[in-house]
Amino acid sequence: MTIRDKRLHAFRPDLADLRLQGEVDAERFVEGRPARIGASVADLRAAPRPDSGINTQLLRGASVTVFEAAEGFAWVQAADDGYVGYLADSDLGSVDPAPTDKVAAPRTFIYPGPDLRLPRSGMLSMGAGLTVVGHAETRGTRYALLPSGEAVIAAHLCAIDAAAADYVAVAEALINTPYLWGGVSGFGIDCSGLVQLAMRMAGRQVLRDTDMQAATLGAPLDLGPACEGLLRGDLVFWKGHVAIMTDAETMIHANGHTMLVSREGLKDAIDRIGYLYGGPTGFRRP
Fold it and tell me: pTM above 0.85?
C-alpha cells in the first residue's frame, strides 16, 4: 500500500478515516463528523495526553472532522491544512453558525458587551473566525456583536474571505510575538506557523510543517553560494527552520535564539545558525 504521512492522513492500527479504506490497514473505518473549534486556541497534540507535545494549533472557528472522542480527547483532522492530532474535546464547538469574520489584528479581546470598560471575557488571535450578528457603538467605538451577546472591537476584524495584499506585512505585524513550539497564533508562534498564518491571512492555504513547506511552496530558487537575487516574500529554509525575506538582505522569523518573531540579517543568520545546524537547505519563491 502507498506510504502515507500520518500527520496528514487519519489512520491508526485500530481506526481510520473511511476515505482511506483500501489504502491503509486498520481494524475499523469510520466516517468523521464535522465540528468547529470553539476555544480561542486549541492545542493539537501527538497523543491523547495532556503531557504530549504540541504539534500545531487550531484557532476558534476552524473546521475539523472528528473521528473519535474518548476520555476527554478528540482525534481530529483540520479542514484547512489536513493536519491530524488530538485535542481536548472541550475545545470543540458547534458546526453552526459559520464564521462571517476573522480577527485581523495580532490579538484582540472579547467583552461581555459593547463596552471596552467591561472586564474582558476572552482573548482571540489573528486568524480566529467569528460569527458577527450585528454592531453597536459606545462612546465612539464600534463593536461587532456575537451570538452570545459578547462583543469585539469591529476595527480588529475583517470579512472571513478578505485577503491581505502582502503576506510579509502580516508577518511583520507579528514582530515580538513570543516563540512557541507548535504555535500558530498571535499569543505564540513558531517558524512554519508564522509562514502559515501570514499566508492564510493573505488568502493562501499552505501546509503546516517546515519540511512540507520546503517541498510544496512555490518554486525552488538556485541562488548559488552568494545567495543573491532574493526578493521580499522569498523563503529561506534550513533543516527544521524557515524564514521570510523582507528584502534582499533581511529576514523575519520566529526563532529560538531571540524566542520572538524578529528581524535578522540573512548573512548574520547563516553564520549564527550554521555553527550548530549547517547552512540553508533551500530557497523558494511562493
Answer: yes
